[in-house]
Design a protein that fits this description.
Elements lengths: L5 H30 L6 H4 L1 E7 L2 E6 L4 H6 L10 H25 L1
Antiparallel strand pairs: 1-2
Helix pairs in contact: 1-4
């Protein structure tokens, strides 16, 4: 009789995917910090990766004016940080997920 390998595959993914998510969160944080305008360094210092659960998290800017730098105002041009950092991290995230899935299926 056929025995499903799904429980083992799921267990392997539950162990590896949170690491991929965390690495990606820190990559986005670093990318956003690298793109941030710096006058005093406060805004850059307030950009943080925060896990929500093992499979998700968020990178946020804690300075109240971060959004104005991201999107601009009538008095200031935009200098996007979060969007470009996310797009830069996306291909690496997808590749790391692909590798994790292949390893889990092969085990």
């Amino acid at each position: 009789m056929y025995k499903s390998r799904y429980p083992q595959i799921i267990a392997a993914l539950e162990a590896s995917v949170p690491k991929v998510v965390t690495r990606t969160g820190f990559r986005i944080e670093a990318g956003a910090k690298a793109r941030a305008r710096v006058k005093t360094g406060y805004m850059r210092g307030q950009i943080r990766w925060t896990p929500i659960d093992p499979f998700s998290g968020e990178v946020v800017g804690g300075a109240s004016y971060t959004i104005f730098n991201e999107y601009g105002t009538v008095h200031m041009t935009a200098q996007p940080m979060f969007g470009p950092a996310t797009e830069e991290a996306r291909p690496v995230f997808i590749e790391e997920l692909r590798v994790a899935i292949k390893k889990a299926a092969a085990a």
